[in-house]
Amino acid sequence: MQPPIIPADENMRLQALICTGLLDTAAEPRFDRLTSLVQQCLATDIVLISLVDKNRQWFKSRQGLQACETGRDISFCGHAILGRDIFEISDASLDPRFADNPLVISAPFIRFYAGVPLHYNSQCIGTLCIIDPKPRQLTEAERQILRNFADVIEQEIADRFQEQSHQQLAASELMYRSVSEGTRIGTWQWNVQTGETVFNERWAEIVGYSLAELAPVDINTWLGLAHPDDLPGSGRLLEQHFAGQLAFYDCKCRMKHKNGHWVWVHDRGRVVSWTEDNKPLMMYGTHADITEQKHAELELKASRDQFQTLVANIPGITYRCKADKDWTMLYMSGSIDPLSGYPASDFIYNEVRSYASVIHPDDSERLDLAVGQAIKDNQSWLLQYRIIHKCGAIRWVEERGRAEYNEQGEVNFLDGFILDITEEKTLKQQLLKLTSQLPGVVYQYQQWPDGRACFPYASNNLQKIYGALPEQVKDDATFIFSKIHPDDLAGLANSIELSAANLSLWQHQYRVCLDNKKPTWVSGRATPERMPDGSTLWHGYIEDITTSKQHYLELERLNKEYKLSQQRLEMASETALIGFWQASLVTGELWWSPVIYQIFGFDENTTPSVALFKSTLHPDDKDLVTASEQRALETGLHDVVHRIIRPDGAIRWVHELARLLPVDENPDQILVGSVQDVTERMQLQQMKDAFVSTVSHELRTPLTAIKGALALLNSGKLDQVPEKLKKLMQVAGSNSDRLAQLINDLLDVDLLLAKCRLISSHCL
Q1: Could you tell me which residue ranges the PAS domain spans (predicted)?
Q2: Fewest CB within 10 angstroms: 53, 92, 205, 289, which?
Q3: Is residue 276 part of a domain?
């Protein structure tokens, strides 16, 4: 527990508290009425006007608490007086300053506390505080109401002091009338018939003069100093006194001070002698300076006007009535006029009509029973009912009230607060109509730290999605969770816990399983709000997304297949050293796949461009590539094999193959194609060509000569050869024919392959 610290100006604060004269005084209705109103307006159990003394806090007014004081060391108010704003504790049991405070762990078991500092002579002397045994948090409107009541109580304290001053002034004035000359009361003697007047020095001092400054003095001296607006009234009072209608001349009027301002004086006098013809002769009287008293009266009136204005500006009706069948009003604020169409004066003591007469007949019996039961149980009531406006319109109101009891437990009167909720009711009906048109569910979901959960509000479409009526889950959400797909339940719970912990937006998709139906996919989104009791309340919307979810899942499957195909293509591309590219012949923009960087020998951080590509072309092949690009504009096909020079100086052969869409569909002249490193193939082709050349020239030419010689020998045109040699020569001739045929077939195959490549390129 943390005791409150002592303010630096404690001595001045205690002196101001003593000056109020409030400590250890009896209860006063002026304060008790205000605390009762606070109790009704803010629906709280305990309301106190607490004055913080040196070692205690003493309660000048209290509602809902028997104790009249507690120690300052355990007080909440001792903390509240240290600031100027409202000191609010939503749950004292969770606040380390108060968790083990005796007032928290035992009666009155404080959980919620809100205190507004009360000031007198610029010093904080105590608080107006409200206390509840349940956690709570004030709304901005409730904080303003509490602040306004504190302002009124401060004014009442000042007014009380002024009233005491007024009483003391009145007593002093009575005493002054009985003392002799030399007191602080101004005296005067007036010869009514001649006008001769005698004033004492104090009479002149009241208006800032000395008698010498006013000399010579007579009745005109007073007439010259009196306020012109007060002279007619003073004259009437004199005439009434002269006529015997008034025992004394008694008038409060203004006199002009020497410094120019007006001074209020209490002028009292009496005729002490009469002429023989019964006319007033000598008159004696006094002048008392009552400027401060008059100012106090004006301030008091202003304070009362302020209170009336405060009550009138409260967004509702405050009342006090008898506990009878007509609810006879003892007091009712003016806000009843726009609500009922009748002025408050109509209802006071049932002057014109009773409040019961404007209550809707269908609600009267219910209202009487509820209020009667609340009075019997010594509890407050909260009711909604209808009243009938003067024009016949129906208005909905919400009433909070509580009975006030005497020491014998009998009801003295009923205090309450009535608020017009017609607009709220209308908006609620409109909301119900709007939500019924939505395909999903508008809802509120509330969850407490102990795991309890419910749906305080849900639109009727809840039945379409979960198969439950809103009334079935208003107090318990168990049924809803029983319909969640088992595989999705843990994820849903985790998402709710995370949203509650961080007060972050909740979004989740999950499946709902209704009886004998396929699971449906739903999507939810809600905004969380922390409540005074520690629970979390979400405001959100849930909709059926089964169709879109199925499309998404199918798209996801196709995307996976696409990625797999892309991976296979990339693997094949890397294996075959085939890269893919896209180039614009107009803008010069160029995109390469990773393999092309490898083929061209560039780092992958290099930005490709047509200009960069052109810089890699072998000087002898630049015209070849340009010609192919020009042909592509006509044929739509770019097919060329050429050399490139890599940054390290190595020369590589590449095969470019690309297509160009028609110009009218492709204004940027974009080519999409591939690049394959064919250096090894070109080297093999060169080796093959060399081999074919060798076969053609180095083998076929000599073989032709040998074959001709053997044919000549075998023809017999030359000399006869031995039979044995003849057979050998025939075998040699036959073998040379077969070898020649083999060479021709080899050359024919190479020619055929060349033609196939040509035909294939034209087909592409």
Answers
A1: 303-378, 565-636
A2: 205
A3: yes
CA 283 – CA 189 distance, rounded (Å): 6
Identify whether residues 380 and 397 lie together within a single domain.
yes
Same structural domain, 209 and 327: no
CATH label of the domain that carries residue 596: 3.30.450.20
Residues, the chain: 764
Answer yes or no: do 24 and 116 share one domain. yes
Residue 465 in contact with residue 439, Cβ under 8 Å?
no
**What is the domain-level CATH number for residue 152?**
3.30.450.40
Cis before 108? omega within 30 = yes
DSSP 647-687: TTS-EEEEEEEEEE--GGG-TT-EEEEEEEE-HHHHHHHHH
Residue 731 C-alpha from the chain's centroid: 109
524 and 591 belong to one structural domain: no
The answer to whether residues 712 and 732 touch, using CB atoms and an 8 Å cutoff, is: no
Q: Where are the alpha helices (DSSP H) in 382-446?
A: 422-437
In a domain, 72, yes or no: yes
CA distances from 468 to 95, 320, 477, 517, 522 (A): 40, 45, 10, 15, 15
Residue pointed to by tokens 């989740």: 508
Alpha-carbon torsion 492, 494, 497, 501, what sign?
negative
**pLDDT tens-digit map of 234-292:** 999 999 999 999 999 999 999 999 999 999 999 999 999 999 899 999 999 988 888 88
Q: How far is CA 149 from CA 84, 215, 344, in A?
A: 15, 54, 22
Measured in Å, how far apart are the chain's first and last C-alpha atoms?
90
Burial class (CB in 10 A: 0-12, 13-18, 19+), 323: middle
* Residue type (1 letter), 170: A
Q: How many CB atoms lie within 10 A of CB 24?
A: 11
Same domain, 696 and 630: no
Structure tokens at 639: 């097919």
Residue that terminates a domain, selected from 266, 296, 326 = 296
State whether 149 and 21 are in the same domain. yes
Residue 433 inside a domain? The answer is no
pTM of the prediction?
0.33
Question: Which are the contacts of 364, defined by CB distance < 8 A and separation ≥ 6?
Answer: 356
Q: Residue 764's pLDDT is what?
A: 42
- DSSP, collapsed to helix, strand or coil, labels residue 196 as strand
Alpha-carbon span 530 to 537, nearest angstrom = 6
Residue 397 domain flag: yes
The domain in which residue 140 lies consists of 9-165
Q: Is the torsion defined by CA of 404, 407, 409, 411 positive or negative? A: negative
State the total domains in the chain.
6
Residues 97 and 115 in one domain: yes
Low-confidence residues of the chain, pLDDT below 70?
Answer: 169-184, 303-315, 432, 434-437, 562, 564-576, 692-701, 712-713, 715-721, 746-747, 749-764
Beta-bridge partner residues of 115: 87, 129
Which SS3 state, helix, strand or coil, does residue 257 take?
A: coil
460 vs 433: CA distance, rounded Å: 10
CA quadruple 16, 22, 28, 33: dihedral sign: positive
